[in-house]
Amino acid sequence: MTYPAGATALAGLTVDIPAGSVGLVGANGAGKTTLFRLMLGLMQPTSGWLEVAGRSVAADPVGVRSRLGYMPEHDCLPLDQTASDIVATFGELAGLPPRAARQRASDVLDLAGLDEARFRPVGGFSTGMRQRTKLAQALVADPELVLLDEPTAGLDPVGREEMLDLVGRLAGFGISVLVATHLLDDVQRVCDHVVMIDNGHLVLAGPIDQLMQTIGLMRVEVGGRPGAVGALAEALGERGLGARAVDDHNLDVDTSGRDEAVFDLVRDTVVDLDLRLYSLSTRHRSLDDVFLQEAGR
Amino acid sequence: MTALPPTLSGAVYDRGYRPYQGLRGGRREATAALWRLSVRRALGLRRSWRQKVFPWSLLAITTVPAIVNVGVGYAIRDDPFELPDFEFFTYREYVGVSTALLLFVALTAPDVVCPDRAQRVLPLLFARPLTGVDYVLAKVGAIATIVFGFAFLPHVVLFVGQMLVSDGALDYLTDNAAVLWQVPVSVALLALYYAAVGVAVSSLTDRRIVGGVAVLGLALVTSTVAAIITSTAGDDGSALAVVNVLALPLGVRDLVFLGHIGSDNGLSGVDGGGILAVGGYLVVLLSALALLFHRYREVDL
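Output (structure tokens, whole complex):
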């Protein structure tokens, strides 16, 4: 996707995003918002194509939008209206009959925890309450997929927890979620899948559990003689295990794709070298580590 | 201990999330909803009383002349001196109570479009099954509908009132049958024009006050320039009076009622004045719509 001014926002991005809770991760300017614009049919890609919820965006952008909910990052609510009116309004704009929209507004505001405040103007709301109102308007028409742009932005720790709890429940309601964020902790907490992009390019995509498993590390602490770490790394290499010295006593062993027998293999290698084994523990990298490594930073 | 009777037992239900399985409309329904919401906003409905004062006062103001006209007609209906039928103003002239309507447009047109951009509501609107064209049609349609209502309702009061106070209601109806189509057509053309111009000018700014002042300023400046041109041109008039954007729909109104430009219009006496009025009307109207479609062709998230 190239803008008229010549800036390329997304390039060579081929990814199949499954239903469920998916995190769209990238630094500011990575192309997350551009991807949302493309998915909503608000702009056309200069090349390539998109399909959302089984529909071609280029062929039927309005039809796609009728099945999507969208929660922007920035403030976007009419401040002089009540939460109830706003959410009902966006229900009607999604094509729901007025009475059904008002009923749905009541239901989703309950769900978002704004049961009593719904009749107050949004201008008097806290940031957390405004975020919940934004989420409620995205859900009011019962979308197949909801696009959430930085849903925890500006929230205090309690508000963030509440928002993440709410987002985490959506998949259970049959609503797929695509959360754009640069907060990897949020993704790790509420998402099953992750799509990482950087400078408009795909970095990595897949189920989070699998990513964490396949890129697991084992931290081994050994001693007994000078050069123990180097000797062990060399011996493990001969047995097909990648290892990297961390300091004079510790080394990280790459256990990607290995089952638990790898622990026995490391232990036996230490014994064969007549070294002392002080500790042996699995160490899973965080999504931050994965992103930094895969993005080459 | 006594057991509770069955009628007093209860259960707590977690309603959880209920999927929606009812009717779901598309673009047409979404556009209609946006039109409805914009009408409601412009009239101050579901808003504080302060937001209601101005539109409803203007409706009252536009209706007062009709009530006065009918009232005076009623007061002199049994006049022993048999004065001719009292006519404070004609139906054609009444279509031009444009100052009140212009004030209404200057206040409400910015109110229905500026906050959408200023408060960044547009991304939410355009994430619904709506297009930029739908947005423009809904907003212009909402203002045009209200202007039509505010301009047409006083005519209904005038017509029905005059008919009732006349010597013969049926005679009055047949004598004035032409206004039954002339008034709605000319009022509709006026309402569409004012709405398109008002919304287009307002779409250029995020601030309501600036939008309102710009609408009034456009009318004042062009009508002043036209007045100067006309006064220097003498009785023959001047084709340059076409710059008066406020008077163009009144020229079209004259064509609807009279078949030619009225003597109170700056284009009166100009060769091809009628064509100029219609041409100017269409140029301004289409330019306003083109500007709006351009402004709302896409939106940033």
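The interface with chain A takes residues 15-20, 22-27, 29-30, 33-34, 36-37, 46-47, 115, 119-121, 123-131, 298-299, 301 of chain B (CB under 8 Å).
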